[in-house]
## 1
Amino acid sequence: MTEHTVLPPIGLGTFRLQEQVVIDSVLSALALGYRHIDTATFYENEAAVGKAIRASGVPREEIFVTTKIWWDQLDGDGPIRSLEGSLERLGLTQVDLALIHWPSPNGEVPMADYLDGLGRARAQGLTRHIGVSNFTIAQIDEALALPVGKYLVTNQVEVQPYLANRKLVEHCQRRGLQVTGYMPLAVGKVMKDPVLKAIGERHGASAAQVALAWVVSRGIAVIPASTNPQHQQSNLEALELTLNAEDIAQIDALDAGERIANPPFAPHWDQ
Ligand SMILES: NC(=O)c1ccc[n+]([C@@H]2O[C@H](COP(=O)([O-])OP(=O)(O)OC[C@H]3O[C@@H](n4cnc5c(N)ncnc54)[C@H](OP(=O)(O)O)[C@@H]3O)[C@@H](O)[C@H]2O)c1
């Protein structure tokens, strides 16, 4: 079991969504009952996300807001300055979670330095919680050995049926970190999968719901993106879907180590 379960089990991802599209998506998600929104400075949509949060009428304290610090902002007070900018754009005084979006490429900025900066941002009250994203097993161990390690609550990593990421996920969970799974729908690929569709038919569910239920069954928080209120609703309902052992075995068999998010500055991934 994970020590920390601070993140709500499902949130709305906002990567690629801009301006009125992201405003409408966040508004409909909050109206449907989502209480967890995932943004990042890199997504260039924080101002629109903040506008939607304020316009929603949902009390601020009910919404879990995550933002992320890009890898060119890791040096010195970079993490603090980055978060101050995020808060200004979001129109908030504090986020619920601030993540290091990617580890410093080739370790250019020492991890002890940028996690110290992130820890200072937390101590200053800019964020309630802190965490990391796209960290490998070795990087998680290095991070947890630092004094600031005790404050880390999550590693946000790609988890979808074609990339189960099992070793990393289980390592994080063993070490008390909640895992957040991004791109849980493989950016659309799961919707066309015959195995997932067939499992869905047996449960009166969609392939997307099957993929989300499989991620959630592994104790991982999911953050699917959707601009479509019907998809948002159905993704929320996926939390109610219980898969049986045979379904899970069939989905586990889809794992092919197929990674979608793999930019040139990515770390040396665990196999
Ligand atoms: N930390 C990182 O480095 C990192 C990297 C990538 C992503 N992320 C986060 O993870 C979030 C999710 O990843 P993602 O947005 O790339 O991909 P995703 O959530 O796997 O897929 C999003 C796509 O699925 C469609 N979709 C959603 N629900 C559906 C449903 N029920 N039925 C049919 N289609 C559906 C959406 O279209 P519609 O709009 O038409 O519903 C959209 O095209 C991001 O938004 C971001 O917040 C983090």
Note: The mean pLDDT is 97.
## 2
Amino acid sequence: MKRAMFVGAIGCGKTTLLQQLKHQTIAYDKTQSVEFFQNIIDTPGEYIEHRQMYTFLATTAMDANVVVLIQSATDQRLIFPEAFATMFGCPVVGVVTKLDLVTTDKDIAWAQRQLRQAGATQVFQVSGLTGTNVDQLRAYLDD
Ligand SMILES: Nc1nc2c(ncn2[C@@H]2O[C@H](COP(=O)(O)OP(=O)(O)O)[C@@H](O)[C@H]2O)c(=O)[nH]1
Ligand SMILES: [Mg+2]
């Protein structure tokens, strides 16, 4: 089983995805600090949205052996700097969330490209809310 740190903008769906992965009741709960849930480390979106907080991500990642960059398909903001993954000493993968809200495949392609440019070596596409494709990510993380 991998020990994964989730990183992504405020509201991109990190906590919802975590709840879906762990078969929990889906309930909105603002992540105020780093939270550990079994093998998953959930981080507040502020850590990636404010560059001066990157150092918190770097230190928290020392407890992880994979970093999961999470990008909502419905958020067109640039969140991850190019080659962001090089900051971490472990593998980095990506997840596009909110697949259920997508109206055009272009949105998925755009989000996927952001994650690839940040350095994600593979990208999953899921809906944390409906659970679509979450089993693929679960299998990867449980392996
Ligand atoms: N439609 C849809 N809404 C989602 C999805 N994932 C999260 N949300 C909603 O987006 C909001 C923020 O989700 P949350 O998981 O708290 O984001 P976090 O800040 O990254 O932890 C909540 O209202 C969620 O219900 C998804 O896959 N589909
Ligand atoms: Mg959260």
Note: Residues 14-15, 31, 42 surround magnesium ion (ligand 2) (CB under 6 Å).
